[in-house]
Description:
The protein has a single domain, classed as Rossmann fold, CATH 3.40.50. 34% of the residues lie in helices and 21% in strands. It is built from 7 helices and 5 strands. The longest helix is centred in the last third of the chain and has 12 residues, at 135-146.
Amino acid sequence: MNIHFDWLAPIYDRVIGDHSIDLLKEALDLPPDGWLLDAGGGTGRVSARLLPFTGKVVISDWSKPMLKQAQAKGGLLLLNGRVECLPFPADCFDRILVVDALHHFPDQRGAIQDLARVLKPGGRLVIEEPDISLFTTKMIAWMEKITLMGSHF
């Protein structure tokens, strides 16, 4: 488990800032009564802003302090756990979102397999990751490496 996010949780949204949801809304094409899983969704900084456009939003994250921040936003269903072993039945989510989190999953292949398992047939999985070719992303990746965050860009 990566404890760095436990320490960052109280300031995460302020440090990272707002995330534009326009492209995500378009890519997800959220059904008004659908279920959205935000895998590795942390504080809910993205999915809380998508809540008005769909039925239910579930955030799965392994950091309890991050989920505590998400809880304060209201209206989100929270699950403390790993994305590689989700406790949901197969084919239960209409949409799945992974924003800036895949590189933090210890078992990326296992995570993708389990996300595919819980995604309904015809559903959408949208993954957004930082562009590692950019200088700022390279610096972030370097910082995460020297602080032993275990990221896999």
